[in-house]
Amino acid sequence: MPETSRATTTHRRLLLFCFLSSVLCLVLSEPVEGEEAEDISRSHFPDGFLFGTTTSAYQIEGAYLEDGKGLNNWDVFSHVPGNIKENGNGDTADNHYHLFLEDIELMHSLGVDAYRFSISWTRILPRGRFGEVNPMGIMFYNRILDHLLLKGIEPFVTIHHHDIPQELAERYGGWLSPLMQEDFVHFARICFESFGHKVKYWVTINEANLFVEMAYIRGWYPPSHCSPPFGNCSAGNSNVEPLIALHNMILAHGKAVKIYRQEFQGKQGGSVGIVVHAMWYEPLRANNELDQQAVTRGLAFGVGWLLDPLVYGDYPSEMRLFLGDALPRFTVDEIDYVKGSIDYIGINHYLTLYAKDCLHSSCPPGGSDHAIRGYVYFTGDRDGVPIGQPTANPGFFVVPGGLEKTVNYMKQRYNNMPMYVTENGYAPPPDEAVQLQQILHDVKRINYHKSYLAAVASSIRDGADVRGYFAWSLMDNFEWVDGYTLRYGLYYVDRRTLKRIPKISALWYRDFLAHSSGNALGLAEYYGRLEQDLRVAGLEDL
Ligand code: BGC
């Protein structure tokens, strides 16, 4: 073959190879659905940043009547047929009470820096302050703390996460009564005394603002109080009760922090904060000034409702303006211990919604014309187009930029005080999580965490003082009124055997945490490892 024609053929072959390989490369590098362009690694976060996983007591512990534990409001509520999907309850939950060593081992194998969990009030105080301290409860949490510390995992402890002693619910209606403040302080003091030398991060109360929404506006959580148009309950007033309950929670928090600072913080050296449920909003009508104001009001009536008193000593002015005398007032003495009562803000962030003004515009019925809603209508879609990819919770959409904006909002409104993303997580829509294979191959959860972590990293680059990120949740668990139908875990929990099996998101998180400069493995390797794990567990024929 003449030299020139051989050269041409080689050239053609080379071109063909390049063409084919670039097509192949394109196919291989095609981003999976929902994946953000930015890749994310530990090196995008400052030294000392805490990566963790999180759970709460009622959602995982089970052992609801063991070793002296008293009944709480959720034990009672979940036993009423029809209250929880598929009549689930927390009687056994994930049996963490008996399997905590295994669970700590799972976290150790993931390589997390920290673990956020909560203390079951009635495991420590079966009858609130009307009975004795349960030594078995104290021992249980001491064992958890000891094993975490042994494994080099920093405990991040929430004192109260939705469950209150049933005794207090019956005696005086739970958080509607100012007497609850003394109960909470009693409980918190026992926690500081018994565990404080092992705990550097305390959260007083989880998402008080979401809790009162669910318990006293919608009536979905015990004690199921609400009034029309928010819901049809046998008791309650959605316009007033949430304001009273949250006020009591804020005062309870302030009193507990005062005690911690006066009697414990100096010698124990921990910090104390609160966790707020923080949604982000975008104006429904783009570039519309009224809807922009609705966004501002929505944030004030959400985040500001809880955090403004703790930072500035009073509720946001918008709330005062619209709610008038229905909004409780703080006395001078109360302001003294409420104002400045957090060392950091814990942010639980799951979703972004559109906000529409209802002061000057017409809105659909359902409560947005009420002051308690700040005259704002919230929706997940604009002209039938959802704001982000759907998740299991109708109305929860994947919008990573919403977390960045939330953090930046906090940074500005609260003088860039230290922040931790104390919860962020994803559960797939139920029809996408039917087969075990689908559940375990949770690429969407990986993409969710990657893109939200990228959002946090971006806010840090812009100067926000975010110091940690906790994935909700370590494992599938009791998802309140949704029972076991929604799965937020990095680990799958088999409801019959309670066996924990890593989803590929767990393998991804482990890989992410192990390599500061980026994940070493790809999806193919995660699938391979999962198969291997399943073989070891004797579950290969799924
Ligand atoms: C709560 C968790 C809950 C999670 C997912 C958060 O608001 O703190 O207890 O499981 O949302 O719905």
UniProtKB/TrEMBL annotation:
<comment type="similarity">
    <text>Belongs to the glycosyl hydrolase 1 family.</text>
</comment>
<feature type="signal peptide">
    <location>
        <begin position="1"/>
        <end position="29"/>
    </location>
</feature>
<dbReference type="InterPro" id="IPR001360">
    <property type="entry name" value="Glyco_hydro_1"/>
</dbReference>
<dbReference type="InterPro" id="IPR033132">
    <property type="entry name" value="GH_1_N_CS"/>
</dbReference>
<keyword id="KW-0378">Hydrolase</keyword>
<keyword id="KW-0326">Glycosidase</keyword>
<protein>
    <recommendedName>
        <fullName>Beta-glucosidase 18-like</fullName>
    </recommendedName>
</protein>
<dbReference type="InterPro" id="IPR017853">
    <property type="entry name" value="GH"/>
</dbReference>
<dbReference type="GO" id="GO:0005975">
    <property type="term" value="P:carbohydrate metabolic process"/>
</dbReference>
<keyword id="KW-0732">Signal</keyword>
<dbReference type="Pfam" id="PF00232">
    <property type="entry name" value="Glyco_hydro_1"/>
</dbReference>
<dbReference type="GO" id="GO:0008422">
    <property type="term" value="F:beta-glucosidase activity"/>
</dbReference>
